[in-house]
Amino acid sequence: MHNFRIVIDTFGPDAGPIEVIKGADELLKKHPEVVLTLVGNEQLIKENIQDLARVKIIPTDNYISNTENIMEAFMNKKDASIILAAQETKAQEDAIGMLSAGNSGALLVSCLKFLASPDLARPCIAAVLPAENGSFTCLVDTGANIDCTPSQLHQFALLGSKFMRELYGIESPKVGLLSNGVESTKGNKLVKETYPILEAEEKINFVGNIEGNRALSGDCDVLVADGFSANQVLKVTEGTAARIIKDIFIYSKKTNKPEFTEVAAHLMKIYDLSSLGGGVVLGIAKPVIKCRGNSKAITFVNTAEMLINIANNKTLFEGKDNDRS
Amino acid sequence: MHNFRIVIDTFGPDAGPIEVIKGADELLKKHPEVVLTLVGNEQLIKENIQDLARVKIIPTDNYISNTENIMEAFMNKKDASIILAAQETKAQEDAIGMLSAGNSGALLVSCLKFLASPDLARPCIAAVLPAENGSFTCLVDTGANIDCTPSQLHQFALLGSKFMRELYGIESPKVGLLSNGVESTKGNKLVKETYPILEAEEKINFVGNIEGNRALSGDCDVLVADGFSANQVLKVTEGTAARIIKDIFIYSKKTNKPEFTEVAAHLMKIYDLSSLGGGVVLGIAKPVIKCRGNSKAITFVNTAEMLINIANNKTLFEGKDNDRS
C-alpha cells in the first residue's frame, strides 16, 4: 500500500491545537495508508497520538496569530508552525499536501514562498460549498486576497474552472461573477471591469453576474469574487442558517411541539459548514487546505480525505451528498 | 384630521406598476388621513383605485429601467416617473415623503437634485432589519453608493446613528463596521481606512468590526458598509432563508411529516424581507423610501406606514416585533 504523507500545522483553530491533534489521531486510525508530519508542541502531540510510529514531529511552539502583521511575522518568526509546515510540504517528496487552520494571509505567503507554481502569479483559496440543487459551487477567492484587481479575478475564474473540471468532472463549469444585480451594468468598479474580461475569456464558460441570493443556488459551478465579498457570502450564509436553527428551537418550545427539533437537527447536518471542509489553495505546486478557525477534529479528518482524493485523482466528495435532499 | 400626502412612483417593481397601485388602493382604505400623488399610467391608476377623490395623478408612461445609464437617462427622460415624483415631493408642502421601487441610482440622483439637504454631501439608503435578539439593525448603505470612500462610510455612520436615535429611541446606538474579521487589522482597504475614523468620531458609539455571521445578530444597532457589501448581506440572508424554507418542505415530504410545514410557514413570516419594508434614504430634506424590486402590494402599505410614523415622530415598527420569538 502506498504511503501518503500529509503535513499538518497544529496551531490556528479557535479551540487550540488539541482539536487538530485529535483529528490527526482519528485520521491515522481511519487511513492506514497515511503517514503524517505534525508541526507543533511535541509533548501535546506525543500525549494525544496513539500510533506515533507513523508520525514525524517538527517541534515548535511559535505561530503567527490572526492579528499579526504578516510581513513582520515572516521576518521575525522563522520557526512559526505555518512556515515550517510549508517548507516540509515542499521538502518531502511523498507529501501529498498540507492542512492548516492558521492565519489565511500567512498561509498564502507561505504557499507563495515555498510552493509557488511557475506559471501562476497569485494563488487563491477555493471553498467548495453544497449548492441548493445538490451540486457543488466553488467559491473563489475565500479570503486569501482581500483587495483584488480584475486580472486577479480573471485568474481565479481560470483556477476555479480547472479545479471543478479536474476534481468534480464537470466538463464545462459555469462561471458566475458575484454582483449586486444580474445586469452586466451592475457591480462595483472591480466587478464592472472584470465582467468584459470574463466575457471575452474563451477558456471559461461565463454565465454573467450572480446576485447574493443565488450565490449557492447552483446557477454556477464557480463563483468569482474578491476575498472580502466572498467572506460575506460564506459567513452570512452560515450566520443565517445558525439563526434559523435557533428560531426553530425557540418555536418548538413556544408551541410545545418537541418534534420540531428534528427539523433543526436535519438543518444542522446540512449547514454545518465548519465540518464540511476547508478552502483549497489553488495555483500552487501541491494542494494546501486552509481549515477555518472554528474547525473541529472531524474537519481535519474530512479535509485530509480531500487531499487523499486529490492524490488519488478521484472526484471530491464522491457520494457525499446523499443525505442532502 | 390632518392630511398627509404621500407621493408614489408606480413604476419599478419586477411585477409591474399594478402591485404598487393595488398597494395604494389598500393604503387609502386603511388610512383615511392619507392623500396620494400617484405618478404613472393614468388609465391603469383610474381603473384600480376606488377612492380617486383622494388621489392626484401625474400621468406619464416613461421611467428609468434598471439597466440604463443614469446620467444619460436624466438628460433625456425629464418625464421619467421617478423624476416627476421627486419634484412633486419637493413641491407639495403637505407631502410627508415618497415611495419608489425604481432604479436605486436614479432615485438617489433624484433625491440629490430635488431633495438635497444643505448640510450633507451624500445621501445613503438605510434598511432596518429585524435582528436575532428582537432588536433592529440599521444597515447603511444598502445600494445607493456602490463604490465608497472612508469619508462616505463615516457619514453613513453618523446618519444611521441619528436615524436610530430619533426614530427608534436608542440613546447611544452601537455602530459596527462590516468586515471579514473582528480584529481592527482585518478588512479590505476601505474598511481598514474607515476604522480609525469611526474610532475617533465622538458623536457615535463605535463597537468595532462585525463579521457577516453576526451582521444581523443585534451586536450593533447600525451596521456600516459600502453598498456592494451591504447588498451581499441583504441578499445572502434572504437567499439562505428561502433555501432553508425549501429544505424544510422537502424534508417534510421525504419523512412524510406534514406537520413540519408549520415550521416553514413560521419562518416565512420572519424572513419575508420583501414585505417588511424598504430602504429609507437618509440625509435629505424629506424621507424617501426605496422599495425593493420584488415588492408586493403589501410592501407599499407597510412602507407608507413608515412614512406616516416618521411624520408622527413615532418610533418605527412600534410593537411590530411581537410575533418574532
Question: What does this entry look like structurally?
Answer:
Two copies of one chain form a homodimer. Chain A is globular. The model of chain A is unreliable at 316-325 (pLDDT under 50). An eleven-stranded mixed β-sheet of chain A has the order 3-2-1-4-11-10-5-6-9-7-8, sandwiched between helices. Chain A has helices at 17-30, 42-48, 70-76, 81-91, 104-115, 150-168, 189-200, 227-254, 261-271, 273-276, 297-312, and strands at 4-9, 34-40, 55-59, 95-100, 124-130, 136-140, 174-179, 205-211, 222-224, 279-282, 288-290. The longest helix of chain A has 28 residues, at 227-254. In chain A, a hairpin with a 5-residue loop joins β10 (279-282) and β11. In chain A, α4 (81-91) runs parallel beside α5 (104-115), α6 (150-168) packs across α7 and α8 (227-254) runs antiparallel to α9 (261-271). Chain A has 325 residues and is α/β, with parallel strands linked by helices. The first copy, chain A, folds into two domains: 1-116 and 284-325, Isopropylmalate Dehydrogenase (3-Layer(aba) Sandwich), CATH 3.40.718.10; 124-275, Isopropylmalate Dehydrogenase (3-Layer(aba) Sandwich).
